[in-house]
Structure formats: structure tokens, C-alpha cells
Fold this protein.
Amino acid sequence: MQPAALPKSVVALVVAMALCVPALAHHGWSWTEDGFFELEGIVEAVYIGNPHATLDVDVDGEIWRVELAPPSRTRNAGVTEDTVKVGDEVTAIGNRSRDETEPRMKAVRIIVGSQTYDVYPNRAPTD
């Protein structure tokens, strides 16, 4: 007796769920260390889009990926391609990746010039 074949819809659902797992792994804060981390460098690239805005920041020749909030929250904090530009000096404060070989962090606050942008005000440090 042959085992029953799974319906195509079930197979498609399982495949779709498996493809979503890597995307879900990078959302939230579970991939970051506890405690604040501060990074200073020069903005090399600005992306304000889904799933969240990012800055690529040159820190002494090493490019760091600085993840911000989703686009609407990032824009509401005042961060746009007009307020943060390639070549700007930036300080990012937040949580670095638990994988110390990965130059990546999730910022709660960035400072460009004299302007402070809290993309996660409820997580931003209180001075």
C-alpha cells in the first residue's frame, strides 16, 4: 500500500513557511546584544524602505549596516534621504549584533551634526 500523497496546497504552504523563516529571523531585537552600543562613522549609503530603513556607515574602512525602524517610523522621526546624506558624519546608538563577526547593529537613535533622531524613542537612552 502506497502512502497518501499530500495535497499540493499543503506542500505549497510548507514551502512558503520555510521561505519566511530567514526573513523572520532578522526582525525584532532577538539578534542583538543587550546594552547600548555606540558607533561613529561616515554615511556611505541611505535606504529608506521596507522592511526597515538602513544606513551603511564607514567606520575606519569597515562598512557597518545600521538598521533603523520601518520606513514610516523612520520618516516620522525625521530621518529621510534629505536629512541624512552620503558623506555625513553619524553617531548611531543602539544594540549591536550578537554575532560579533557581523558588522551590524539596530539603532534606536542617530545623531547627524547637531540633530538627534530617535527612531525608537521608547528604547532610546535617557541622558
Notes: The longest strand covers residues 37-47. The chain has two helices and six strands.
